[in-house]
Amino acid sequence: MAEKMNQQVHPFAQVNKQPRSDEESGTLTSDEELKRKKRIKLAIYIAAFAVFQTIVILVFALTVMRVKTPKVRLGTDVTFQNFKTGTQASPSFDLSFTTQVGVKNSNFGPYKFDSTIATFMYEGVTVGQVTIPKGKAGLRSTKKVTVTANVNSNALQSTASLGSELGAGVLTLNSQAKLSGKVELMFVMKKKKSAEMNCTMTIEVSTKAVQSMNCE
Fold first, then answer.
1. Containing H/E element for 131?
2. 11, 122, 130, 158: most buried, per Cβ within 10 A?
3. 177 class by beta-carbon count within 10 Å (0-12 exposed, 13-18 middle, 19+ buried)
C-alpha cells in the first residue's frame, strides 16, 4: 500500500502548441490576398463581357435587324425605238423606249417583290403602262429589271400644255409604281414592305435623249 502511495502520479502530457511564426502568417495573408484579387479580376471580366454582349446585341438590333424601305427608281439609260412628236400647232407624241427599273435593297436580307404595273403619265393623265415582273433584290444590292414602254398622247383631252412644251423642245413624263413584297432576315423573320416609285423624266426632243431624271 505504501509502495502504491509512494508511486508518483504523472500528469497527462500536454499538447505542445507552438505559435505560428511571422513568416507563416505572412504567407497565408499573401495567399488570401492573391485569391481575393483573382476573384475581383474574374468579376471584372464577367461584367465587361456582359456589357460587350449587350452592346453587340443593341448594334445588331439597330443595324442588321432593322428593316428599311427599299427604293425604286427609273433608270437614266433610255433607248428609244420609236420617237414621233408633233409640232406646237399640232402637238402629239408616240414613243417606244427601253429602260431599267432599279430596286435598291439596303437590308441585310433579300427583298422579294410581286409583279406590278408602272404607269407613265402626262400631267396626271395615263399615257402608257408597263409590267414590272416579280423578282428578288439580294441583301444590300440593287436589282435591275429591263422594261419596254409604249406611250402616246391619244388619251389627252387637252393638248395646250403639250404644245407649249414641244414648242420649247422638251417633253415631260411622270412614272409611278408601287412594289409589294417582303424582306427576309436571318432566314426566319419576314417583314412586309412596300416601295414606291415616283420619277419625272424630261426628254429633249431635238436630240431624242433624256435631259434629266428626278425621283422622289
1. strand 125-132
2. 122
3. buried
DSSP bridge partners of 130: 118
Q: DSSP per residue over 90-102, as a string?
A: S--EEEEEEEEEE
Quick one: CA dihedral 74, 103, 65, 48, positive or negative?
A: negative
**pLDDT tens, position by position, for the chain (216 residues)?**
445 445 555 554 454 555 555 555 556 577 788 888 888 888 888 888 877 767 665 555 555 568 999 999 999 999 999 999 999 999 999 999 999 999 999 999 999 999 999 999 999 999 999 999 999 999 999 999 999 999 999 999 999 999 999 999 999 999 999 999 999 988 778 899 999 999 999 999 999 999 999 998
CA–CA dist 126, 19 (Å, integer)? 106
Can you say whether residue 31 is alpha, beta or left, with left for phi > 0 and alpha for psi between -120 and 50 degrees? alpha
Max CA-CA distance within the chain?
161
**Residue 181: all three cell numbers together:** 413584297
CB within 8 A of 209, min separation 6: which ones?
A: 78, 203
What number of residues does the chain have?
216
CA distance 61 to 119: 37
For residue 82, the Cα-to-chain-centroid distance in whole angstroms is: 39
Residues in contact with 156: Cβ distance below 8 Å, sequence separation at least 6, in sequence order: 122, 125, 127, 162
Residue 1 confidence (pLDDT): 47
